[in-house]
Fold:
Amino acid sequence: MKFRVEVNVMPHRSLHDPQGKAVCRNLPNLGITGVEDVRIGKHIQLELEASSEDEARQKAEMSCKKILANPITEYYEFTIHPVS
Amino acid sequence: MKFRVEVNVMPHRSLHDPQGKAVCRNLPNLGITGVEDVRIGKHIQLELEASSEDEARQKAEMSCKKILANPITEYYEFTIHPVS
Structure:
């Protein structure tokens, strides 16, 4: 079976996010008001083959733990979608 | 009213994604098999004040068009969540 995994990897809330702060500060200059916070992370799409949704979940979890997210500075969350 | 906007900014499908390819090639070395494609983009969380969901949608659209996404190389999609 084929699955699509949508992963979000974000900086821990306790961490300062300079990129997000820079965007947030500049939005009023572009005429966009009322934006109080901006946080920027990674969105990763995996297409993978697995015998079951459980196995797809394990592969996604291992991918996040081993290469996609740095546990010291980031947290991750993902959703799994059967493709075929 | 306060809203949280979850934005995904991804490289156009037609574009080569070297970062994603590098991750995809390395997953088997980490014992993760069956991953056929990896695409890496940005996940951006906005917290904004707006008088209605429509106004929140307009602010999110303008933010994407003006600063968050490069229309030549990227596409964006977002979901809006009332916070309070």
Q: What stands out?
A: The mean pLDDT of chain B is 96. Residues 2-15+41-82 of chain B form a domain with the Mth169; Chain: A , fold (CATH 3.30.1280.10). Strands of chain B lie at 2-11, 35-49, 74-82. The radius of gyration of chain B is 16 Å.
